[in-house]
Structures are given as structure tokens and as C-alpha cells.
Design a protein that fits this description.
- The protein starts with 5 loop residues before the first helix and ends with a strand.
- By secondary structure, the protein is an alpha+beta fold.
- It has helices at residues 6-46, 76-82, 155-158, 180-183, and strands spanning 51-53, 56-66, 91-95, 98-99, 105-107, 111-116, 123-136, 139-142, 159-161, 172-175, 190-202, 208-220, 225-238.
- Strands 2, 3, 7, 8, 9, 11, 12 and 13 form an eight-stranded antiparallel sheet that branches. The chain has a three-stranded antiparallel sheet with strand order 1-6-10, with no helix packed on it.
- The protein is elongated and about 105 Å long.
- The longest helix has 41 residues, at 6-46.
- The chain has four helices and 13 strands.
- 23% of the residues lie in helices and 40% in strands.
- It folds into two domains: 1-46; 51-238, no CATH class.
Length: 239
């Protein structure tokens, strides 16, 4: 086997140097990207909010208002379509609010205490009242996947913004409206609801977080009272 010349050895050395340099560059880029991702992850963790309702139950006064098919915050035409079965003079049920002489609310009574236990602000916060079981008198009914597609139980009509919807760390918020299936219980048949609250909010980076928490709701229409208990935390995820 013929021996290699100095020029050939030099060419091989040049190739090895190029390969080693390329490996070094790629390694450097990988380490830099990994470090950058770790820094970004750390920044996100330092700005992550964590919302949940304060544990415990509370009784709220309710009021009956003859607004027929209307639902606050919902387009009138759409409400008349989905609630066509509700009489025009039907009473709607909601938390009793203090109003001025013109009937405008001037002092809100908030439902629950929604705390931000995280280290970053929670933005655009909404809460969905998801029913799992509804009792009418002594009978109970499971609200399954198909039942949740009905407008009165669907998330579209049972999602309400927190007030305020932007919640700073160690600050609190609340809700100003009951779920639609209670608001439009014009026959006043529902005695209790077991369900889950889906609390959705964004952090300053735009990442959506969801907290799920159990709730129990009990009605006492004769005394114009509703009792709501905020219970176990089920999950806290990021999307």
C-alpha cells in the first residue's frame, strides 16, 4: 500500500479540522438554544398565575325579574331563538344587586372569591359553570356529553367574565351572574346542581391556563336564596 504524501495528509487534516469545527459550532448552537429555552421557561414560570376560588360556602340573595327570553350579555335575537319555549313574561333568576332609581346597578354583589395565588397577572379571565348532575325535587339527572350540547347547558351561554377579568398576584375577583340553567329556571324546579368550574385565563406571554374546581349549588326559591359551595381543586393545566 503506497504511503500518503504530505499534501494528501494535509488535505485529510483539513477535512478533520472542518468536521471538528462544524461539530463545535453545532454543539455551541445546541447549548445556546437549550440555555435560551431554559431562560424562557424560567421567565414564564416566574410570571405564571394560578387562580382558584376560595374554599367554602356562602348564601346569596336572589331576585326575580320578568325579562322573558332575554339573557344579560346575549344578543336578543339569539336569546329569543334558543329560549323560544320560555313565556314572554317569565321570571329570570339572578343575584340580587343594589340598583339606583333608574334601575342601574351601582353596587355589585360578587359570587365567590377568585384569588390569584400565582406570581404573575391573570389576564382575560372567564369562568364556565359546567353542570354534571342536576336535581329536581328528589330526582337527579346526569348531564352527559349530548345534554351539554343543548344551549341552556352549553358552555357558550354559561361562560361569564370574571370581574375584574385581569387579576394581579395576591388580588381577587368574582362573578356577577349565575349560570344560565339557573337564570332561566323560570319554573323554579331545580333544587341543586353538582358541577365543575372551568377557570380560563392567560399569562403575560399569551399562554392559556385552565383551573378546574368542583362546585355545589343549592336553591331555596321560596326564601329567595341560593347557596354555593366552592370545593376541591381538580386540575391546573397550561395549553
Amino acid at each position: 500500500m503506497p504511503s500518503l504524501t504530505l499534501i494528501e495528509w494535509g488535505s485529510i487534516a483539513q477535512i478533520l479540522i472542518t468536521v471538528i469545527t462544524a461539530v463545535g459550532v453545532f454543539t455551541s448552537i445546541y447549548i445556546s438554544i437549550k440555555a435560551l429555552r431554559e431562560v424562557q421557561a424560567d421567565r414564564k414560570q416566574r410570571q405564571r398565575p394560578h387562580l382558584m376560588f376560595e374554599y367554602g360556602g356562602e348564601e346569596y340573595p336572589i331576585e326575580l325579574r320578568k325579562i322573558g327570553k332575554s339573557l344579560p350579555g346575549v344578543d336578543t335575537t339569539y336569546a329569543e331563538k334558543v329560549f323560544s319555549y320560555i313565556p314572554d313574561d317569565a321570571e329570570s333568576i339572578d343575584i340580587e344587586q343594589r340598583r339606583d332609581e333608574q334601575g342601574i346597578i351601582d353596587d355589585y354583589l360578587f359570587i365567590g372569591t377568585l384569588n390569584n395565588y400565582g406570581v404573575g397577572p391573570a389576564l382575560a379571565t372567564t369562568v364556565t359553570w359546567v353542570p354534571k348532575e342536576i336535581s329536581i325535587g328528589s330526582e337527579s339527572f346526569v348531564i352527559d356529553y349530548n345534554k351539554l350540547k343543548e344551549p341552556i347547558y352549553a358552555s357558550e351561554l354559561n361562560t361569564v367574565p370574571a370581574s375584574p377579568s385581569h387579576i394581579m398576584p395576591n388580588d381577587e375577583s368574582g362573578l356577577t351572574r349565575l349560570p344560565t340553567y339557573i337564570v332561566k329556571d323560570f319554573e323554579k324546579k331545580i333544587s341543586s346542581v353538582d358541577g365543575i368550574l372551568e377557570i380560563k385565563y392567560k399569562d403575560v406571554f399569551g399562554t392559556t391556563h385552565t383551573t378546574k374546581q368542583v362546585f355545589y349549588l343549592f336553591t331555596n326559591y321560596k326564601k329567595l336564596k341560593i347557596h354555593i359551595t366552592f370545593s376541591d381543586l381538580l386540575s391546573n393545566n397550561s395549553n
